[in-house]
Specification:
The protein is an alpha/beta fold. 27% of the residues lie in helices and 27% in strands. Strands 3, 4, 5, 6, 7, 14 and 15 form a seven-stranded mixed sheet that branches. It binds NADPH dihydro-nicotinamide-adenine-dinucleotide phosphate. The site of NADPH dihydro-nicotinamide-adenine-dinucleotide phosphate has 27 residues, from helix 2 and helix 3.
């Protein structure tokens, strides 16, 4: 049987993503077939599509999605047909169906909408590992992050507030600033106001940690506003990748720490994945964490979704609906 999926034949702009027919694969040992409800759009797919990250072509993007299990492969232990599931670590998700290893799937709580569940695993678990593992946030910390109305930004801000931090963030429009404030951010400022704001809020001491997903345009300021022994977690490059830099700057800045983490390394075991997935879905189920879907596109309009994300036109999560 065939399905519709997005195919990328070579690296390029959003226009290289075309809807086409592809076979529905059969689940192998320890795998299940998932009928996809919605797909989370993430920056990683723009890096893969454009050639910033190497992939083999033809390529179908899509790591994050939610759906229903429709078929089981051999020796599947924890899932059954009909289970509602979500993943941040699938492959070929820009499609109607995908085969996934069962240990990469988490069960969606009964009171969480299945489409909404596609908006959470990747950015939710990223916010979780940043705050719980890359730099463990403590009550009273002052934390700087950017793009407070973005997919990660809205979730990260709420989690930082749950942990008792003071949050300084940025946003480029008034609408985005209002969203970041509603998520709990204490100070929402223009990018050129970051240094002055940190100075004022911390009385010149600097912030305990910076979570920087903007990269090229913000890296220097991120290093500059850290307090002595502060930590910079550089987790993305929405404005471009950071060029090589002189390690002596960490010494001169006050024994600073810089880390360049990625989600896969913080889902290293089944236990770790279950912990992070359970926490973020549990917070949504209990109403502690609000997930905002800013835009939805039909699967065939994946190119428009990428254009919107890359041109700063989105807020919260962007979904594709097959
Ligand atoms: P967002 O929804 O945050 O979108 C990116 C936002 O960045 C924009 O809306 C914009 O907000 C801001 N921005 C500032 N400068 C630029 C620029 N030059 N071009 C585009 N956007 C810019 O995206 P995500 O939440 O999906 O991802 C945020 C970052 O997190 C990305 O860099 C992504 O790669 C990274 N990431 C990393 C992971 C990891 O494990 N390492 C996992 C998940 C995401 P504004 O207009 O308000 O400035």
């Amino acid at each position: 049987m065939n399905q519709q999926s997005i195919l990328v034949s070579h690296a390029g702009g959003p226009e290289v993503m075309e809807l086409g027919d592809a076979p529905i694969e059969a689940p192998g040992e320890g795998q299940v077939l998932v009928k996809i409800e919605a797909v989370g759009v993430n920056f990683i797919e723009t890096y893969q599509r454009s050639g910033v990250y190497a992939v083999d072509y033809p390529f179908t993007p899509g790591t994050e999605f939610s759906g229903t299990v429709t078929e089981l492969g051999e020796n599947v232990r924890h899932l059954k047909v009909g289970d509602r599931v979500a993943t941040s670590s699938g492959t070929k998700g820009y499609a109607q169906f995908a085969v996934v290893d069962e240990n990469q799937l988490g069960k969606v709580p009964a009171n969480v909408d299945l489409r909404l569940a596609a908006a959470l695993p990747l950015q939710g678990m990223t916010s979780h590992y940043l705050t719980h593992s890359s730099y463990l946030v403590r009550s009273g910390d002052v934390i700087l992050t950017y793009a407070g109305a973005g997919g990660v930004g809205l979730l990260l801000t709420q989690i930082l507030k749950m942990k008792g931090a003071t949050v300084i963030t940025t946003a480029s429009t008034q609408e985005k600033k209002d969203l970041a404030r509603a998520a709990g951010a204490d100070y929402v400022v223009d990018y050129n106001q970051v240094e002055a704001t940190v100075d004022k809020v911390t009385k010149g001491q600097g912030v305990h940690a910076v979570y920087d997903g903007i990269g090229k345009d913000t890296f220097d300021i991120s290093l500059k506003v850290l307090k002595r022994r502060g930590t910079l977690a550089l987790f993305g490059g929405a404005s471009g990748q950071v060029p090589p830099f002189d390690l002596q700057r960490l010494n001169a800045g006050g024994s600073l720490t810089v880390t360049r983490p990625k989600l896969a390394d913080f889902l290293a075991t089944d236990e770790e994945r279950a912990w992070r997935f359970g926490d973020v879905f549990g917070w949504v189920a209990s109403g502690e964490l609000d997930v905002r879907v800013g835009q939805e596109f039909a699967l065939k309009d994946a190119d428009q979704a990428h254009r919107a994300l890359e041109s700063r036109k989105t807020t919260g999560k962007v979904l594709l609906v097959p």
